[in-house]
Design brief:
203 residues, mainly alpha, 11 helices, 2 domains
Length: 203
Amino acid sequence: MKKIKRANIIIIILILIFALTVSLINIFKGDTTTSLKALIIIPIVFIPTILRKLFKIKFRYILETIIILFMFFAYYLGYVFNIYHKLVGYDKIIHGVSGLVTCFFALFILKQSKKYREEDKWFNILFCIYFSMTIAILWEFLEFADDKFLGKDEQSVKTTGVDDTMYDLLVALIGSIVFCMCYYFEVIFHKELFIKKYLKYIN
């Protein structure tokens, strides 16, 4: 646990240095919009810490690391550096990974609420999929609002119609199904691989 906590602190420090550097570079370029977007990652990386301190949530460092790294690749590289539009397939990879990440968080919620029981594997699997798809839909709502209020085209409606949104939801679903298949395998065959080790750690 100490090693994970130490690694987590190092990751946060590196992200903060990177964010401040990018922000300063864009200020000198006169691009205040990108500069401000670069700084948004700072409060984001501290959300798990805030939840842990204010609401006494037992936010484990392994889950915090997963969330922070995902937000860095999804928001920072994707949105601030516009990798979504520069690198073909990056958007779909991130949405697929989001299905995995949100399933980890779904299991965390079950454990924290004392609702997790290994024998209820089908309930756990359905909860993971439902939770993952709810987050995916909310994310699409955010992109829709961004498009409407800021005049952007994050959902690529102009070029793909509803195809981009539907593919985003589909790959998120695939990511969550892959997670659940791995979880099912570990439960049925009594294997303690990555997911069960994660569950053991967040007890």
